[in-house]
Amino acid sequence: MDIVNTFATILARPDLWAGTLRFAAPLTLAALGGVISERSGVVNIAMEGMMLVGAFFAVLVGAATHDIVLATLASVLCGGLIATFHGVASIHLRANQIVSGMAINLFALGLTSFLMFRFYATSGTPSDIPALPDVNIPVINSIPFVGAVIGDLNSIVWVSILAVPVTWWFLFRTRIGLRIRAVGEHPRAADTLGVSVFRMRYLCVILSGLFSGLGGAYLALSVAHSFSDNMTSGAGFIALAAMIFGKWHPVGAFLACLLFGFGQSLGINLQGTGFPDQLVAATPYVLTVVALAGFVGRAVAPAADGVPYEVGE
Amino acid sequence: MRMLAAGITPVLAVVLAIIVGGIVVLASGSNPITAYESMLVGAVGSPFDISETFISSIPLILAAYAVSFAFRSGLFNIGAEGQLYMGAIAATWVATTLSDWPGLPLIIVCIVAAMAAGGAWAGIAGWLKAKTGAHEVITTMMLSYVAIDISHWLLEAGPMTPANAFGTPESGPIPPQAAFPVILPSWILPNARLNASLFLTILAGLVFAWILWRTPLGYEIRAVGLNAKAAAYGGINVARRLVIAMVIAGAFAGLAGMVPVWVQMRLYDSFSPGYGYEAIAVALVGKNSAIGIFLAGLLYGAMIHGAVAMQANANISGFLVQILQALVLFFVGAEVLIRWFLRRGGFRALAEAAS
User: Fold this and answer.
1) Number of structural domains chain A divides into
2) CATH of the domain at A223
3) Do B334 and A100 touch (CB under 8 A)?
4) DSSP labels, A166-182
5) What's the whole-number mean pLDDT along residues A201-230?
6) Is residue A252 part of a domain?
C-alpha cells in the first residue's frame, strides 16, 4: 500500500511530467536526426559524438561572445561539420558506416576533452555563458497542473516537440522526402530516375548533425550551464536506441524518447523515497528490452540502410 | 604477401593517424614531437612501463574478442561493457563469499563465475534476438546500462558494500590467495603488477581462433554470420547458433571484467574506463582475427598508458589518445583512401591485395 501511495504521489507531481519533456528533448532532436540519416540509407551511430561537439562549441562560443544566437549557431554548425566527415567516409569513401560512426564518436570525445584541457583545464568552463530562453506562456501558466508542466519550458523543448511533425511532414509529404526515402530503399531505382543518391545522402547526414548539435547545445547551455568531459554520457546512444525502437519513424522515435525521458524523470523523483534509486534508474532500459521483445517485434530498417552506393556499375 | 596485405591497412592507418593527430597538437599550440616522444617513453620507455602497457591492454583484448566473436555470427555486440561489469561483479562476489577457500580452486571458481555471468548477460540479448528478433544493438546496450546500474546499487549501499566502506563505493577486498600470480619476480622488476592474466589472454585468443576455425560449431557460426538464410537452408539451427555465439562472446567479456578487478584487488564503482566501448574499436582495427585483435589491443593499451606520462610531462591532454584511436579507426574504415595512397605511391599490387 505504501508503494502504491508513493507512486500515486509522484505521478501527480507536475515536476515528473515537465522533467519527462525536458529529458526527452535532446534525445528527440538526436533521434530525429538519426531517422533522417538512416531513411536516406546512411547508418548513423554517431549522434553521441555530434551532440558532444555541439555541446562543447556552444560553451566555447558562448563564453567568448556572450551571444546565445552565435553560441547555438556554432553548436549546430559544428554538429553539421563533424557529420560531414561521416558523410564523406560513408558516401564517397564507402567505409563501413558503423566503423565510421564509432570513429566519429571517439574523435568527438577526444577532441572536446582535449580542447577542454587546453582552454579550461584549471578553472572549468566559465559561469557567465548565455542560456537558451524559457518560454513562459501566460494563459496556460495559470491553469493548475498543466501550467506547471508546460507553462515554463525551455524553448528547445518546444523546438524538439515541433520538430517531430515537421520531420514527419518533410519525410512523408514533400517531394524531397520521397526522394530521400527512395534513396534509402532502392538507390539504384532512384538514381535511374535522376535523383542524386549522393546529394540526398549528404543532405540527410548533415541534417542529422545539425539536429544533434542543437541537442548538445541544449544540454550544455540550458541543462548543465557548463561543459565537462563526456557530458552527453550516452544520450546519443539512447537516441539511437529510440530511433530503432521507434522503427525509423519520427513519431515512433519521439514516443521512445518520451519513455526514456519518463524513466530519467521518475528516477529523480523517486530519490529519497527509500527506493534504491540506482535500480530505478535502470527501469527505462529494462522497459525498452521488454517492450522490444514483447510488443514491438522485428524492427525493419530501410532496405539500403548501411549499404554504400556505387555509381554506374 | 597475404599476411603483409592484411597488415598494411592498419599500419598505414596508424601512420596517417599520427600525422593528423600531430596537426591537431600543432594547431592547439603544442609541439607534436614532444607529445609523441613523451607518449612513447611513457608507454614502453622502461620494463615497468611495458608491463603496465600490458595491464592496460589485457581487458581491451579480451573484450574485443567478445565483440568480434559475436560479429562473426553477424551480431553487433556493443554491450561488452555490461557483460564485463557482470563478470566483474560475479567474480568479486564469489571471491569475497568463499574467502576461506584455498587459492587455486578459488581462482578457478572465480574465472568460471566471471565467464558464466558475462555469458549469461550476453545470452539474454542472443536469446531475445533469436526468439523475438529484438535488435541486439539495442538490447546489448540497454543491458549494459542495467548492469552498470546494478553495480552502482550493489556497491553504493547494497549487498556487496562492506560494513566499513565509509561511503566509498567499493566491494570488500579480494582475498590475497585468489590473486593471479605476478609473472615477473620482484628481483627482475620491482613492484611489477603484470600477472598471469596475460597467459589467460593468450589462451583466450587461441580458444577464439580454435572455436571459429577448427570446430563444426565455429564453422556454423561463421556460416550464419555470412548468410543466415543460406545457413538455415543448409540445415543449421540459426537461432541456436546465435544464442551460443552470444554466450561465448559474453564469456570473453566476463573474463575481461574480472582482470582489472584482480589488479586492484577490489571492485570499485565505475572500475571500467569504457573497456567495452574501446574494445569495439580494437576489434575493428584488429579485423576480427585473434592475432590482429591482440596486436591492436597492445597498440591501444600502449597509447592509454603512454598518455598518462604525456599529460604529466608535456602538459598535453591525455585525450589526444582518443583522437588518435578515432583516427586509426576512421582510416581503417576508409580503406578506399588507403588503397588510393598505395596506388599513388606505386604499390599497385599491394593496393589490390589490401582490399
Assistant:
1) 1
2) 1.10.3470
3) yes
4) HHHHHHHHSHHHHHHHH
5) 94
6) yes
| A290 Cβ under 8 Å from any chain B Cβ | no
Give CA separation, A67 vs A71, A130, A174, A195, in Å: 6, 6, 35, 40
**Closest C-alpha among A31, A72, A76 to residue A247:** A31
Q: Is A131 on the interface with B (CB under 8 A)?
A: no
The residue-averaged pLDDT of B258-277 equals 90
Residue B68's identity, in one-letter code, is: S
Categorise residue B168: left if φ over 0, alpha if ψ from -120 to 50, beta otherwise. beta
Q: Provide the pLDDT for residue A93.
A: 87
Closest alpha carbon within chain A to B287: A99
> Which domains occur in chain B, in start order?
1-30+316-355 (no CATH), 56-314 (1.10.3470)
pLDDT score recorded for residue B349: 67
Average pLDDT (B198-225) is: 95
Domain limits for position A81: 2-296
How confident is the model over A274-285, as a mean pLDDT?
Answer: 78
Region B18-40: what's the mean pLDDT?
91
If DSSP codes are grouped into helix, strand and coil, which group holds residue A209? helix
A293 and B128 in contact by Cβ < 8 A? yes
Q: Residue B2 above 80 pLDDT?
A: no
Contact A224/A26 with Cβ under 8 angstroms? no
Task: List pLDDT tens digits, range B167-178.
Answer: 778 888 899 998
Please tell me if residue B333 touches chain A, with a CB cutoff of 8 Å: yes
Chain B contact for A291 (CB, 8 A cutoff): no
Q: What integer is the mean pLDDT of A104-125?
A: 88
Query: Cell numbers at residue A99, please?
Result: 566503423
Residue A132 falls within a domain, yes or no?
yes
Q: Please give the residue that has the higher pLDDT: either B33 or B349.
A: B33
Q: Answer whether residue A310 is part of any domain.
A: no
B131 contacts on A by Cβ (under 8 Å): 293
- State the smallest CA–CA distance between residue B182 and chain A in angstroms: 33
pLDDT tens per residue across span B105-134: 999 999 999 999 999 999 999 999 998 888
Identify the CA nearest to B81 among candidates B207, B218, B260: B260
**Mean predicted confidence (pLDDT) in A91-103:** 86
Angle at CA B153, nearest 5°, toward B103 and B101? Answer: 15
Mean predicted confidence (pLDDT) in B16-25: 92
Could B333 and A278 be called an inter-chain contact, meaning their C-beta atoms sit closer than 8 Å? Answer: no
Q: Which residue in A95, A285, A297 is closest to B333 by CB distance?
A: A95
- B326 with A104: Cβ contact below 8 A: yes
Determine, yes or no, domain membership for A308: no
The answer to whether residue A36 scores a pLDDT higher than 60 is yes
Whether A299 has its CB under 8 Å from any CB of chain B: the answer is: yes
CA–CA gap between residue A58 and residue A52 (Å, rounded): 10
